[in-house]
Amino acid sequence: MSVRIDEVDRKILKELQQDAGQSLDEIARKVGSSKTPVWNRIKKLREAGVVGQETVVLDAEALGFEACFFVLIRTSEHEESWQKNFLNVLRERPEVQEAHRLAGEIDYILKVRVKNARAYDVFYQALISEVKIFNVTALLSMEEIKSTTMLPL
């Protein structure tokens, strides 16, 4: 479904990206509209798939997840059955926050959040026991400089 997005929709989307928990009254006030039209627009954007799952952002370090690894994976396997198994394994691993298939020498990159290096090793050992992988390189993030889910609307 295709949806036309006007300037008011963009303002609403910006507000939702900032804080999806704010009330309809607050959003309406900030975008210069009233509650019912804002609700109708949000509903339209949800139905069109523009607005997806609403969630909260947790502080990983405050919860003890102090290590973030970017895992570069090269594989010699490119059959559909291998890919299906690999994707299923990734979906089942809660440590994997993001997974991307890449163009170039590296086939996949994962963002893995764990408590420490020992926890990463447990993840790594489980991964290579479940899926045949040619090469794995793990890069430890020393500092998160910027992280956002917000689109530049």
Task: Give a verbal description of the structure.
Residues 5-66 form the HTH asnC-type domain. Keywords: DNA-binding, Transcription, Transcription regulation. One of its GO terms (biological process) is response to amino acid. By secondary structure, the protein is α+β, with helices and mostly antiparallel strands. It folds into two domains: 7-47, Orthogonal Bundle (Arc Repressor Mutant, subunit A), CATH 1.10.10.10; 67-140, Lrp/AsnC effector binding domain/regulation of amino acid metabolism (RAM) domain (Alpha-Beta Plaits). It is 39% helix and 18% strand. It has five helices and four strands; from the N terminus they run αααβαββαβ. The protein has a four-stranded antiparallel β-sheet with strand order 2-3-1-4. A hairpin with a 6-residue loop joins strand 2 (96-101) and strand 3 (108-114). Helix 2 packs across helix 3 (35-47).
What's a quick, concise take on this entry?
By secondary structure, the chain is α+β, with helices and mostly antiparallel strands.
Fold blueprint:
Elements: H1 7-18, H2 24-31, H3 35-47, E1 67-74, H4 80-92, E2 96-101, E3 108-114, H5 117-130, E4 135-140
Antiparallel strand pairs: 1-3, 1-4, 2-3
Helix pairs in contact: 1-2, 2-3
CATH homologous superfamily label of the largest domain: Lrp/AsnC effector binding domain/regulation of amino acid metabolism (RAM) domain
Total of domains: 2
Rg, Cα atoms, Å:
20 Å
The span between the termini is: 20 Å
Overall mean confidence score, pLDDT: 96
**Record field, number of beta strands:** 4
User: Helical percent range?
Assistant: 25-40%
